[in-house]
Write a structure and sequence with these properties.
There is one protein chain. This protein has 256 residues and is mainly alpha-helical. The protein contains 9 helices and 2 strands; from the N terminus they run αββαααααααα. Strands 1-2 form a two-stranded antiparallel sheet. A hairpin with a 2-residue loop joins strand 1 (40-41) and strand 2 (44-45). The radius of gyration is 22 Å and the shape is globular. The protein starts with a helix and ends in a 5-residue tail after the last helix.
Length: 256
């Protein structure tokens, strides 16, 4: 039984490695040419892309195997208290591992990912006519003195602006934006770590936990969301907390 489990785990690792390597290669092609011609052109797969994909798969497989080894040690059920509570030590350590996996993206995307909404929010906060595009579409009470409006969540605009202003005061606005991004990434890593530990407490297989961890730690979409300054990412954090708390209430209604 143990041998079968080990074989299944190895197959899962290989498939995850191949998929993640392929995603990186296709993503690189689109980032350079806005198409996948560096991978597939005229109906043929590039030989260079195949070689890079094979090497990348091996490297990713090595990383995933190392991660599985760490998870096997960290996910020991003995670290979960008898009353079912997850220890802070386990939560913090697992969150740190996730953040370590996100570190390359954190450096690459410094000070954080942004979209036109973030630009507009900063334009509202700093009363910048060039940056604030919603002033053209929203009926403002007194546009000469304020561009503030509720096209985006006002509270998030305020928080974003405060961090940007703080960065401006200590040297550069990007420093403040990075601090906000870092706090957001720490919170999101903590939430993902809690979900993994909760799944372990529910006796999910370690192979399944490994796949979930690989998704959280290496999927570019997840990392980009964690690095994003947009209000959607902040909403995701609140939504995760709400759904986890709601599930706990429904699953264990007898507890206060």
């Amino acid at each position: 039984m143990k041998k079968t489990k080990s074989k299944f785990e190895k197959i899962v690792k290989i498939l995850c490695a191949m998929l993640l390597a392929a995603i990186q290669i296709v993503g690189y092609s689109f980032s350079k040419q806005n198409n996948w011609n560096l991978v597939i052109k005229d109906g043929r797969i590039s030989g260079k892309a195949i070689v890079i994909w094979a090497i990348g798969s091996i490297l990713v497989y090595a990383c995933i195997s190392f991660i599985y080894l760490i998870l096997d040690r960290m996910m020991d059920t003995r670290d979960i208290k008898e009353d079912g509570k997850i220890t802070y030590k386990q939560l913090v350590l697992l969150a740190l591992v996730i953040l370590l996996c996100w570190l390359p993206y954190m450096i690459l995307f410094y000070p954080g990912c942004a979209n036109p909404d973030v630009q507009d929010q900063l334009g509202q906060f700093f009363h910048n006519e060039t940056m604030c595009w919603t002033r053209k579409y929203v009926n403002l009470v007194n546009p000469q003195h304020s561009y503030w409006n509720n096209h985006h969540p006002v509270f998030h605009t305020l928080v974003l602006g405060i961090f940007a202003q703080f960065g401006k005061q200590i040297g550069h606005i990007s420093v403040g934006i990075f601090l906000l991004t870092l706090i957001q990434m720490i919170l999101m890593a903590g939430i993902f770590a809690y979900i993994l530990l909760y799944l372990k407490k529910m006796n999910f297989n370690n192979v399944v936990l490994g796949v979930v961890f690989v998704f959280y730690a290496f999927c570019v979409c997840v990392v980009a969301a964690a690095c994003s300054c947009s209000c959607s990412s902040s909403g995701v954090i609140a939504a995760f907390c709400f759904f986890m708390d709601s599930y706990n209430c429904c699953a264990r209604p007898s507890l206060p």
